[in-house]
Design a protein that fits this description.
This protein is mostly helical. About 75% of the residues lie in helices and about 0% in strands. The protein has a two-stranded antiparallel ribbon. The relative contact order is 0.22.
């Protein structure tokens, strides 16, 4: 970084971006870890790995490309794990993470990334994402039953934040929820102590069940739900981000961090929007400093991942569930909009959504896989021209 490019506004933007990244989406990671009964050291290692991977990838890309390329972990990917991690277990999940990272890396190096997504019906992918996240989003409101004051307070803060400062709505919900929990004596923060994260090398196990239930859906939602919009954020801000190095590097970092629990590292979407606008700096050429600041803060958080894990464990589960569910409102909205916007295969997309939202499991494979399989089959039957029919029509014309 050239000293002349440094600006306080860019550094503040980078810090805000990291705060937004951890204010809500990290609650989804902790929820998945809790449902899978992961021990504290594995959960701490997971936080270390996603923070370290995000920091390294963001620093390298922002410095090399001279644009604010922020990296983060896959939020829809973490939501998938809420359903699948308790079923496959952490060892098979890590094996699936490695497969997903290899797929992303191969697509990035080959340049086939955009070509692949162009041939997968976008409504199908959007519907799978919306369906998988749907039930998890419901938990934000079901948790109000057991703690109405806390739940309604968090919801009110989120809605007010959405109206006044949409970027910071989740952060405001976290602050208000934590204050209410402290006032009600529902936290156990007294036992929190400063501790460093210790990476834990997790032995991967391989199974076709995990490949189809975790790896393939994880790779698809990460590519379509994070890489594509992440590149779009940069493009909309006037940059020309090269897809190949960004996809390849985040895929490589995902591969290296997977044995320590990281499920996927990818370009950030929400956080990146904070660093790509004029709030970071009037000169677009100097906004990359925000990406460097965010990357450095991610590395610092990685060091103290053990403390963060303690803090999250000390908060009431209703707060974590409500914040995590509200944090997914944007992703669910994106999925539903993508479902209805693609009228050419809307029926198949609705079938995909219903299968994913059902939570069904068959032959050891979860709803994410079956939504793609059955939705894809519906797409071929309902919306594709059949070769036999086309040949029959051609034969009639010749006759």
């Amino acid at each position: 970084m050239h000293l002349k490019d440094f600006s306080l506004s860019a550094v503040v933007a980078g810090f805000l971006a990291v705060f937004v990244s951890f204010a809500g989406p990290v609650a989804i990671v902790f929820q998945a870890a809790k449902l899978a009964n992961l021990p504290a050291d594995i959960t701490s290692s997971w936080i270390w790995a996603i923070a370290m991977g995000s920091g390294v990838a963001g620093l390298l890309l922002s410095w090399r490309l001279r644009m604010p390329v922020l990296a983060a972990w896959s939020t829809p990917g973490a939501a998938l794990l809420v359903v699948s991690l308790p079923v496959v277990g952490i060892h098979q999940a890590v094996g699936a993470y490695l497969v997903a990272a290899l797929l992303v890396l191969a697509l990035g190096l080959s340049g086939a990334f955009k070509l692949l997504l162009e041939h997968i019906p976008k409504g199908i992918i959007a519907a799978m994402l919306a369906g998988v996240l749907f039930n998890f989003g419901l938990q934000a409101f079901l948790s109000i039953q057991s703690s109405p004051t806390l739940g309604f307070g968090v919801l009110a803060a989120f809605l007010i934040g959405k109206r006044l400062a949409p970027r910071y709505a989740t952060a405001l919900a976290v602050l208000v929820g934590t204050a209410l929990a402290l006032a009600g004596g529902a936290t156990h923060l007294g036992g929190v102590a400063l501790s460093f994260a210790t990476p834990v090398l997790i032995r991967p196990e391989w199974s076709w069940h995990a490949v189809f239930s975790v790896a393939l859906p994880l790779a698809l939602v990460t590519l379509s739900g994070q890489h594509m919009p992440g590149l779009a954020v940069l493009t909309a801000s006037g940059y020309q981000p090269p897809a190949r190095p960004i996809v390849a590097l985040t895929g490589l970092v995902s591969l290296l961090m997977a044995p320590f629990g990281a499920h996927a590292i990818n370009p950030s979407v929400i956080a990146a929007s904070i660093c790509t606008g004029s709030e970071a700096h009037e000169d677009p050429a100097r906004r990359y400093v925000a990406g460097l600041a965010a990357g450095g803060l991610f590395l610092l958080i990685a060091v103290f991942g053990g403390t963060l894990a303690q803090v999250m464990a000390a908060l009431p589960k209703e707060l974590v569930l409500t914040v995590a569910g509200l944090a997914l409102v944007g992703s669910i909205t994106t999925g539903l909009v993508g479902l209805v916007n693609h009228a050419g295969h809307r029926d198949a997309s609705v079938i995909t959504f219903l299968v994913a939202a059902s939570g069904m499991s068959l032959l050891g494979l979860g709803a994410a896989f079956w939504s793609l399989a059955l939705g894809g089959a519906a797409y071929l039957v309902l919306h594709q021209r059949w070769g036999v029919k086309a040949r029959f029509a051609a034969a009639r014309l010749r006759a």
